[in-house]
Amino acid sequence: MRRLLNDAVRTLVPTGEDRHGPLPPLMLTLTVVTGLVDAVSYLALGHVFVANMTGNVVFLGFALVGAANLSALASVVALAAFLLGALSGGRLGTRFATHRGNLLKTATAVQAVLVAVTVAAAMVTDGRVTTGVQYTLIVFLGLGMGLQNAVARRLGVPDLTTTVLTLTLTGLAADSTPAGGAAPRPGRRILSVLAMLLGAFAGAQLVLHGHLVLTLSLVLLLLTLVSVTTHHLSSADPDWTRSPS
């Protein structure tokens, strides 16, 4: 238990010697963003995911055989937007390959712009999800989450992918002491799961009570916070900004 708590504290408040610097708490914030965004997409946009592509592919299969309340078109649009966002994230990763701070700062700034479009679109209809609003949100949120996923992959912070928890949960169990493993980073893995849960819980509470614009505004606020904080912390080119590989 002490090891788990120490690891959790080091993840939330990294020491100066941590080779990933402040990236872990920043990535946890982006994990909360993912939970918020998928709450919006699933609960308000017609049972489609814009961050969880595994679930989206499964939904597409269900929709193609006529399952109720699922749209093949919405799933295809979300997949296409996500892939385009990931392509853009890959290009950013190549451009800022030598400076992780500039990569995260730029990527979250671009995400913030994309989410700002969704806030404006939702405000136009006072939070009502018309067909136009639905597909605008699917496209722009999908672009943002594809970008985030690609950038998180390039940043290379272990157990903090910000969008995918399957491997994190698998590692938490498979590498545990009862399984005969060394149980690396148990606190970080649990925090990642809790961050996603927190985002999904908060997003569901807001969306189900008719606060779509507020939910998207919260996403915009968190992305802006991450971008500004990263800019401030990486401006002096500390060691953690260098690629870990």
UniProtKB/TrEMBL annotation:
Protein name in the entry: DUF1275 domain-containing protein
TM helices/strands, residue ranges: 26-45, 57-83, 103-123, 129-147, 190-208, 214-233
UniProt keyword Cytoplasm present: no
Keywords in alphabetical order: Membrane, Transmembrane, Transmembrane helix
Domain of life: Bacteria
InterPro entries: DUF1275 (IPR010699)
Organism: Streptomyces antnestii
Pfam families: DUF1275
